[in-house]
Amino acid sequence: MKTDIRETDTNYELAIDLPGFKKDEIHIELENGYLTISAAKGLDKDEKAPEGKYIRQERYTGACSRSFFVGEGIEPRDVSAKFEDGILRVSLPKQVKKELPRNSTIAIE
What residues does 27 pair with on adjacent strands? Predict the structure, then answer.
């Protein structure tokens, strides 16, 4: 997962390349101060050729995961994510709150 991390005055912004993945194949989780992004793909389609026989058919399956330590005080509601054109963009607040985070999943827009 190639990742660019940009710092602004108020946020950290991650741009993660995930070409070939769909939004529903990506999972983001915030647990114990770690933001974990994982993606898994499994193609197992039975398609029939309109004419003739298949000479060769290939399937791609794969999974990747990456974790970033973001601090103990960030809540899932503080994190926003958007997936568009094969790039996952995640925005995190720069200032860390003093509360402990809950284990939760983050929705992707």
Answer: 38
CB 21 within 8 A of CB 88: no
- Backbone φ and ψ of 11, nearest 5°: -135, 165
Question: Which amino acid is present at 84?
Answer: E
Average pLDDT, the chain: 84
- Quick: pLDDT tens for 21-66: 899 999 999 998 899 999 998 765 555 556 777 677 676 778 899 9
**Contact (Cβ atoms closer than 8 angstroms) between residue 6 and residue 85:** no
Q: Tell me the C-alpha distance between 35 and 91, whole Å.
A: 11
pTM greater than 0.70: yes
Q: Yes or no: say if 28 and 35 are a contact pair by the CB < 8 Å rule.
A: yes
Q: Are strands 11-17 and 87-93 parallel, antiparallel or unpaired?
A: antiparallel
Q: Which of 82, 109, 96 is nearest to 15 (CA)?
A: 82
Which residues on neighbouring strands pair with residue 4, listed in sequence order? 15
> In whole angstroms, what is the distance from residue 108 CA to residue 80 CA?
8
